[in-house]
Amino acid sequence: MKADSTAPVDPVCTDPLPGATLGGPVSHAVSRIARLHRIAAGKLLKGLGLYPGQELLMAHLWAGGAVRQSELIKAVDLDPSTVTKMLQRLDQAGHVRRCPDPADRRAVLVEATEDSCALHASVREAWSVLEEHTLAGLDPAERTELARLLGKVEANLCQETAGCPGVAGPDRHEGPDRHEDPERPVPTA
Fold this sequence. Notes:
Layout: H1 25-46, H2 54-64, E1 67-68, H3 69-76, H4 80-92, E2 96-101, E3 104-112, H5 117-135, H6 140-160
Antiparallel strand pairs: 1-3, 2-3
């Protein structure tokens, strides 16, 4: 039997799914997209001397100023050892400064350095390039609809995982780059 070359092709489903993922084709697609997005971000950030995730940590510091390391760990929702390693690298590069908290000498304050301010514009530009690359071929209405749908997916997953850091809720404050309304798109750095 010959395939109909005029039939529309669903680009997400062109490759056969591995057996274990047959029950979750959208989840499989989201997983693949997240991996590819991280790789693309990594390529752009490498030129800035950053690893993926470090720009989000820096964005938090640029937006909120000095913060205790323990609060930063909660805000970025990463393993403490991962954040510690990130901060060591960022400190060595001169992008952050860590010092004892004068209010509690056991706690560590982290802040962006003045030298990191030049990096801020470069990170913003990298994320703009990543955004355009990610959304190439989508018209403005499709981009808006995708952001709306992803907001719903994020809200579902936050609810399933007992909440997300930085997202407003009954026991949470609104983070610097999140909206209380999951229907509204989240702005990029």
